[in-house]
Amino acid sequence: MSDGEKKALIFKWLREIEPLKILLPAFTLLCLLNGCGPSSAEPPASLNGRWVGSIAFRGRTDPMIMDFYGASGEWQAFVGKPGLPDYLFLSAVNVRYQDPHISFELRYGDERLSFAGIIAGDSFKGGARLGEQEMVLELRRTGAAVARTSQPFTEEAIQFRNGEATLAGALLLPSGPGPHPAVVLIHGSGRQSRDEWRIFGMLFARRGVAALLYDKRDVGHEPSGMDLVDLRDLAGDALAAVALLKARNDIRDDQIGLWGISQGGMVAPIAAAQSSDVAFVIAVSAPGVSYAELYQFGVANALRGRGFSGGEVSEATDALRRLDNFVRKRNPQGARPMLEEARRKRWFEFSTLPPAPPTETELRTWVRWRNLDLDPTRHWERVKVPALLIYGEREDRMPVNKCVERIREALQRAGNSRNMIKVIPDADHELMLAPNTGADRRIAPDYLDTMTVWLREQLELAR
Length: 463
Fold this sequence. Notes:
This protein is of the alpha+beta class. The chain is 33% helix and 29% strand. The chain has a 9-stranded antiparallel beta sheet, with no helix packed on it. The chain is globular, with a radius of gyration of 29 Å.
């Protein structure tokens, strides 16, 4: 083809596309309006939605829900449990997604738990590590994510002291003018941060009650699982938090109460019994018997659940009683032959019996020995303020009927008629319904409703 022929073809093509040049600006505008421009307009749909499944940690499986959605190219995620209102889901941070890889972080006090995983269609599998322990997270997408609005409260970092212990945490303050009533949340056993029970702090703050959350003091968690702490020291920590609130102008100093769960349900009455600054007590799954009896009951239940015979259960609980008696007589070494024999039993590893008698240091420091025979009812019988106690009917860590009866009698001895004790059918120690493990477990609705309705009634009576 000659140069002249080539030029003729080019001029012909230009004449043919000339009408299209007029349409190009309109086409570009339509692309921008309808999202066919840069990829930042709308995030991929491969992550958006509600994901339901479970998280396995330390031999236990719990249900978990995550909502993922994006806006302006940024991903957001919220974490909760079945039965928990959407507005109480906790936010994840640093959410990153590059198909198929996803990562995010969950708050744990001043630390962050870093999760990473893979998305494959409607399935997510990943996990995180906490020390040497691995968490395994498995989820499946079930529908659309729930849109969320801003929370009706603010959060303020706080710090306070109890003797030589310095404690830090957060104060959730309701929106609107104060002063506000307030509640201090007390942890269960083990190492726990301010975020362990944050959802309940959020629940109270949304109902107009300021909530103080704090990182539990260093309990010196031993490999054996024994906390190095005394319940009376933990009660002092809670009262130091009450003192901090009492000194604030935005808090009603006559409406500061305590909320405690499990071990915290033993700590709360100890604190309330010794301070006139505590206006109410809410205790969830609160033991009404000593540690000695709790261990025997818990071990018996655990062994039965693993299929051990009645004779084996009796052997294990008898060994626990004998060890406790040696400790009471200040002769723990006398238990050595018995423990050596028990170590040869197949139930031993599930019995919480130590492999050797407790040392003098352990007797002075482990909560199991320091508070072996501490009777919670001795403190409940000195609690004069309104008290709410909530239990699960399927409680497996304590004799629930006995605990309820003993605490009820203690409150009667205190002359305290302003109390309510509720046992929720089919609920367990954590007030969860349905199976013991797995994604089908959900928070009992009666739990949250009972707590918030009762508290608002008490605060109105106190005005």
